[in-house]
Amino acid sequence: MARSGSSEIIASVDIGTSKIVALIAEINGDNELKIIGVGTEPSRGLKKGVVVNIESTVDSIGKAIKQAEGIAECDINTVFAGIAGSHVRSYDGHGFVRINEGEVSQEEIEAAVNAALTEEEAEVSGTLVIYSGRKESLVSEIIAEFESTSGVTVEVRYAKSAELAGTLKLEGAISPADVFFSQDPVSLGIVAKEGLFERLPADILDNVPGWAVDKNNYWVGTSGRSRALVVDTRDVQDSELPNDIYGLADEKFRNLAMVACMVELDGEEKVLEWLTTINGLGYAEYPKNSPQVAAAAAGELDIGMINHYYTLRVLAENGNEPIKNVYLDEGCGAMVMPAGVGILSSSQNKPAALAFIEFLHSKAAQ
To answer: CATH number, domain at 237?
Structure first.
């Protein structure tokens, strides 16, 4: 928009999750920029940068621009807009146009962009190498179905998730793996911290709930298991149960099988104090989840800390067993732990890797 003399004005709007900011600047004849108007309005109708209520978002943008117009004493017709969020992604494409001599025209730029956008998507084919920390007995049929329906040849290396994370760390950019399919988020985090994962596109991220998405979009969950207490309903009443894991350090829960709460959340000092108290209660030790459920059903154990599905398996076979799952309200005892998957930056077959993750989120695999 032109102003007096040879100056002109430009406007920009930054659409953030917490606030929307409008700026109006004047460019003088010497190509110097001067801010002449600012407007700020709390963001409404946005969640993680994604518009969830268009009317509220438009209203917030309008108010921010009105404020800036009032200060700058001018009307704005067009703006440069900036918006961030997991739904914003880059697209790698190639477009070529023949140009005349001299300055490249806007029409030629648009023609090159359109050529890049119409480039055909890469074909899903070839060989896909998966490092799987998930047991072969649990996922081999799913992987075989993907191989059958996609036409992709799949090679799988099975091992413990922590072991595979260490292998990927050592192999680095020369790893033959395309995909890391992990039993736990800790192992995924190790690989992500090394910068070995490719950021995943929005259409993958949008398929899963926010709690199962890495904060940097390097990996996504494929399934989840909740921590739960398996309770002998003959001996323990609901009114006796605590809200968090620390409430279990009580004499009345002496026959307790327990897994230590994550030090990262509460710090070593608090966890050490809790472990010392638990150790002093003379509790029985159980090596795995299944023995705890069996002990609770037999009346040997009042409460055990397990993954939720172990109790559900027993109840599916015999619904009369005197046990049930109880879910804590707070802290580590209430967490849901996802198994997840990420694509290695060094992958030689990213189209097939993306197709595999999409398949894992499909109804057929879930």
So the answer is: 3.40.190.10
pLDDT of 204 over the 50 cut:
yes
Burial group, residue 282, by CB count within 10 angstroms (0-12, 13-18, 19+): exposed
Does the pLDDT at position 156 exceed 90? yes
pTM as predicted: 0.57
Tell me the mean pLDDT in the region 69-95. 75
**Inside any domain, residue 351:** no
d(CA 240, CA 48): 39
| Terminal Cα distance for the chain, rounded | 54
Domain housing 289: 225-336
The DSSP 8-state label assigned to residue 173 in this structure reads G
Burial code (b: 16+ CB inside 10 Å, e: under 16) for 291-328 equals bbbbbbbeeebbbbbbbbebbeebbeeeeebebbbbeb
More confident residue, 54 or 52: 54
Report yes or no on 130 lying in a domain.
Answer: no
Is residue 17 one of the residues assigned to a domain? yes
H/E run at residue 257: strand 256-257
How many other CB atoms sit within 10 Å of the CB of residue 162? 15
